[in-house]
Design brief:
This protein folds into 2 domains: 102 residues, GMP Synthetase, Chain A, domain 3 (2-Layer Sandwich); 64 residues, 2-Layer Sandwich (Ribosomal Protein S8, Chain: A, domain 1). The strands form 2 sheets. Strands 1-2-3 form a 3-stranded mixed beta sheet. A 3-stranded antiparallel beta sheet has the order 4-6-5, covered by helices on one side. It is an alpha+beta fold and 172 residues long. The protein is built from 6 helices and 6 strands. It is 52% helix and 20% strand. It is elongated, with a radius of gyration of 19 Å. A hairpin with a 4-residue loop joins strand 1 and strand 2.
Length: 172
């Protein structure tokens, strides 16, 4: 029985470590151009391997349509990303992580969340009370969890269920 459990774990690890191929990058580029082309906006698209995250990065320069393609709180970026991921799954029968970024929105978003986290840590340490952060997506909560994981002054945890889930920053 122990051998079977080990085999299952090894298969899961091997699946996660699958490397992105040039063929997959080319396919994502083709699919991205087709998808964005259907929107009728003038963009330039660059697609590359993201070795660090074992993903395919799609960078879109949208010139005049940046706001439209980013959407409210990044909703359109996330939709494009999900659509490309599903299209790749349909084409290759495998899940390939695709990350879409427009006008460095992801970096700006991460910086904004880190600033929010720093302000909340300061408030938690000063008041010595846990500070909640509401209305964050799972990805946003994760960014703050990871960012504060090295901070010795506070700990973080997610509480609640579904749409009511929130992040709690507790002083140590």
């Amino acid at each position: 029985m122990a051998k079977k459990t080990t085999d299952v774990k090894e298969k899961k690890i091997a699946k996660k470590e699958k490397k992105i191929t040039k063929k997959e990058v080319g396919l994502v580029e083709k699919l991205s151009k087709e998808l964005i082309g259907k929107l009728g906006v003038d963009v330039s698209i660059s697609v590359s391997k993201d070795e660090k995250n074992n993903a395919i990065m799609v960078k879109i320069d949208a010139k005049d349509e940046t706001g439209l393609l980013i959407g409210n709180r990044g909703a359109t970026i996330l939709s494009l990303q999900a659509a490309l991921g599903m299209m790749m799954r349909q084409e290759t029968d495998e899940w390939v992580r695709v990350v879409v970024d427009i006008a460095d929105w992801r970096e700006k978003q991460e910086a904004r969340l880190q600033k929010l986290a720093d302000q909340t840590v300061e408030r938690a340490v000063q008041t010595k009370e846990a500070q909640p952060l509401y209305n964050l997506s799972p990805a946003e909560r994760r960014i703050i969890h990871v960012y504060l994981s090295e901070n010795k002054d506070v700990s973080t945890e997610s509480s609640g269920e579904g749409d009511e889930r929130y992040l709690l920053i507790r002083p140590r």
